[in-house]
Design brief:
The protein contains 12 helices and 10 strands. With 278 residues, the chain is an alpha/beta fold. The strands form 2 sheets. The chain has a 6-stranded parallel sheet, with helices on both faces. It has a 4-stranded parallel sheet with strand order 8-7-9-10. 39% of the residues lie in helices and 13% in strands.
């Protein structure tokens, strides 16, 4: 089976490819990533998906014109999409709308809200839901989510119960937790760049509450990027959930890194004060 992926996140597809490799399934995944981190894993889609590259960040919000241009560019025998058996769509799920004119199966594995890229316009969101219904009615939709929230979220909006397929992120297990007791800080994860003021306030509170420990935002320590091995050398990771499904949490769990997180009550108070959750 030949699968193809055009995604905005490197982890879900990397996870799928690793599971396929370990299980020996007769499947292969051609990945043409639009993620800003695709260089790290060598999966960038340059040279094969020029239409979307030209649209840059707007590709997340596929317009009808972009979808038509995409089909025109790849509607030839032996093209990437005509030769694939199915397209894998995770982050965001709506990328599978590109597939519909090619009459192929869509494997939608939601790792965030399925309407990402369609959430700004009700008409376009309703269009995505209608397209998922059309794929389902044609017997060309495989629907899954990596967390219970999105399982029920999809069922509510799409009217079909997806399979629960958690992200394993077993590919990250090679970088096992290796803190040596040194002075490396606990990494605070999930503080989005646009909420720098909230990050400063939270870090100040952490230093007051636990003066014997050092806390720092991962974005400030590794502003140029990081490897799993670098994360594994820290004593722990404090996750401040900015949404209900965070791919790095699956990776850290697989790496056996101690994971800290606020209780729901504390997160609610912090969000009321600092608007941490998007």
């Amino acid at each position: 089976m030949q699968l193809v992926s055009v995604d905005f996140h490197i982890t879900p597809v990397r996870d799928l490819k690793h599971v396929i490799e370990l299980s020996g399934l007769p499947a292969d995944v051609d990945e043409y990533s639009l993620s800003g981190q695709c260089d790290e894993v060598g999966t960038c889609g340059e040279g094969r998906i020029e239409v979307l590259r030209a649209a840059a960040g707007h590709s997340l919000y596929l317009t009808q014109e972009t979808k038509e241009e995409f089909f025109s560019a790849y509607d030839y025998a032996g093209s990437l999409f005509h030769s694939a058996d199915a397209m894998v769509c995770s982050h965001p799920s709506g990328m599978c709308e590109l597939l519909m004119p090619f009459n192929r199966t869509a494997l939608v594995w939601a790792t965030t809200r399925f309407e990402q890229g369609r959430e700004k316009n009700r008409t376009r969101l309703e269009g995505l839901i209608a397209n998922l219904h059309a794929l389902d009615n044609a017997g060309r939709l495989i629907l899954a989510a990596n967390n219970l929230y999105d399982v029920h979220y999809l069922n509510y909006f799409v009217g079909r119960m997806p399979a629960l397929v958690p992200s394993l992120s077993a590919f990250a297990a090679d970088a096992r937790w290796s803190w040596d007791g040194g002075v490396d800080p606990v990494l605070v994860w999930g503080l989005l760049p646009e909420k720098a003021g909230a990050a400063d306030s939270l870090l100040a509170r952490l230093h007051l509450a636990a003066p014997d420990w050092s806390f720092e935002s991962v974005r400030r320590i590794y502003d140029g990027g990081y490897s799993p091995g670098q994360i594994a050398r820290h004593p722990a990771v404090l996750h401040m959930p900015y949404q209900v499904s965070i791919m790095s949490l699956f990776e850290h769990y697989s790496m056996c890194v101690p994971v800290l997180a606020p209780s729901r009550a504390l997160l609610a108070r912090l969000h009321a004060d600092l608007q941490l959750v998007s």
